[in-house]
Amino acid sequence: MSTARAVLLTATLLVAPLCSWTQENAEAVPDTAKRLLAIKRLCVEKFAGEEPQAAQAREMAIASLFATKRFSLTENCEKADAVLKGAVAEAKEQRVRAEGEGMEFGTAAGAASVSGSSGSAGFGAARGASSETLVSSATLTQASVTLRIVDKDGDILWVHTEENKGAKTKTPIGFSLGRAVKALLREIERGEKKKTTRPG
C-alpha cells in the first residue's frame, strides 16, 4: 500500500467516528427556540428582590404577557408548561451640581501735607467681595431586571437581563421589565421564522 493511500485511510478512520458523534449529539441537543414555541401555559412566580418593587414587577410582567396573548397564564405552576422567574434590583443616587461666580472690589483714599506747614495727613482703604452659588440636585434611579424561563425539568430555556442606569424615568423597573418582555417575544418570533423557513 502506498504512503498516500495509507494516510487517506487513516484520516477516514479518524474522521468517520467524529462525524457520527457530531451528528448524534447535534440531534440530542435541545432546540431552545422550538421548546419556547411549545410553551402554551405559563406561570409567573414571585420575583426576587426588595418589596414592594418585586411584587409590582411581577404584576407588571403578568399584565405585559397577558396583553401579548402569546401564553395562557396560570397561578398554578404545577399545571404550567414552564415557569417565568424574575429578580429585580433598584438603587437611588443623589447627584448634586454647584455653579458659582464671585467678584472682588476695593477702594482707597489718602491725603498728605508738605513738611513744615500746618495740616494733617491720613489714609483709608476698604475691600470687599461678593459671590453667588447655584446648587441643583437630581435623583437618579438605577434598575436591573432579570427574567428566565424554566421548564418542568428545571432546564433554563431562556434568560435575559435589562439594566437601566441612571434613568430619570418615573418607573425605571417597569421600563426595564418592558424591554425584557419584548426581548422574549423577539426570541419566539425568531423561532417561528426559523420554523417556517425550514425545508419540509
In brief, what are we looking at here?
Helix content is 37%, strand content 40%.
Residues in helices, as a percent range: 25-40%
Span between N and C termini? 45 Å
Strand order of the largest sheet: 2-1-3-4-5
CATH fold type of the domain at 31-96 and 138-195: Rossmann fold
Q: Note the total helix count.
A: 4
Q: What sort of overall outline do the alpha carbons produce when their principal axes are compared?
A: elongated
Radius of gyration: 37 Å
CATH superfamily of the domain at 31-96 and 138-195, by name, is: ABC-type transport auxiliary lipoprotein component
Oligomer: single chain
Which properties best describe this structure?
200 residues, alpha/beta, Rossmann fold, 5-stranded mixed sheet, 4 helices, 5 strands, elongated
Topology:
Elements: H1 3-28, H2 32-37, E1 41-44, H3 53-68, E2 72-74, E3 82-111, E4 122-151, E5 156-167, H4 172-197
Helix pairs in contact: 3-4
What does it look like?
- By secondary structure, the chain is of the alpha/beta class.
- It has a domain at 31-96 and 138-195: ABC-type transport auxiliary lipoprotein component (Rossmann fold).
- Helix content is 37%, strand content 40%.
- The protein has four helices and five strands, in the order ααβαββββα.
- The chain has helices at 3-28, 32-37, 53-68, 172-197; strands at 41-44, 72-74, 82-111, 122-151, 156-167.
- It has a five-stranded mixed beta sheet with strand order 2-1-3-4-5.
- It is elongated.
- 12% of the residues are buried.
- Mean pLDDT is 75; it is low at 6-30.
